[in-house]
Amino acid sequence: MIKKKRRKRARRKRRLLALLIFAGIAAIAVLIGITGFKLTKVQVTGNELYTDRQIKESVLNDEYSWNTLYVVLKYKLFKMKEIPFIDEMEIQLRSPNKIQIKVYEKAIIGYIEANDQNVYFDKDGFVVEISKRRIENVPKVEGIECREVVVYEKLSLKDENALSLLLTFSHQLQKYERIPQTIAFGENNGLSADFGSIRAEIGDAQYLIEKVMRLDAIMPQLKGKKGVLHLENWTPLTTDAVFAPD
């Protein structure tokens, strides 16, 4: 009986010692996590339209964001709150005191003027920004009217078919890296695009994708020229594209 009691006491001591050791390790880990992973440097890459400060404020958005481990684990384990102008962000630990935020911005494909401001929208037709600034290589869209413009909401056009046509046209132009200065809607939603010295008359939605493909093939031949490229009557059967020089 005495030996059994001694063995029980010995087991209790071992368990208590193991518990104390575990608690000590946990306390040290917590202490290291608090003191050793204090965020002092944030590297932001991939952003062009928005500043480092805007990106940092969108990521480091709560009272625990001073800790690098917390920030990295937060965005790995939990779904990130959607940020309207960002397609995706990657948060990586570069050192105990440094994180890197890799940004994939949504592509802005055009803007319209409303209330003396520029209303920029993305590939899905959502308003990304309303401001007076002019972003380079983003075409101005003319000839359409909005009922209202609200940031982070879809463009509300009087003609809903025009939005679908505009997004398809803009996407195809970006596909071939043909970015015009302006895109204009004419009668019956006929499209045209101004590439500086060349204006391309595209016409309606019929064969739109094929017309842009043809436009891309012809543009190198018009380098240094000035005039209007007529594609509005182009079809797979009547493949003539008429260039009218000024």
Give structural notes.
It is a single chain. It contains 5 helices and 14 strands. With 246 residues, the chain is an alpha+beta fold. The strands form 4 sheets. Strands 7-10-11-12-13-14 form a 6-stranded mixed β-sheet, with helices on one face. A 3-stranded mixed β-sheet has the order 1-3-2. Helix 4 packs parallel to helix 5. The longest helix has 34 residues. The protein is elongated. The termini are far apart.
How much of the sequence lies in strands comes to 25-35%
Secondary-structure-derived class: alpha+beta
Radius of gyration: 30 Å
Q: List SSEs in N-to-C order.
A: HEHHEEEEEEEEHEEEHEE
Number of strands: 14
Order of the strands making up the biggest sheet? 7-10-11-12-13-14
The mean pLDDT is 84
What are the low-pLDDT stretches, counting only 5+ consecutive residues below 50?
none
Helix content: 25-40%
Bulk shape: elongated
Largest sheet: 6 strands, mixed
Distance between the termini: 113 Å
How large is the count of helical segments? 5
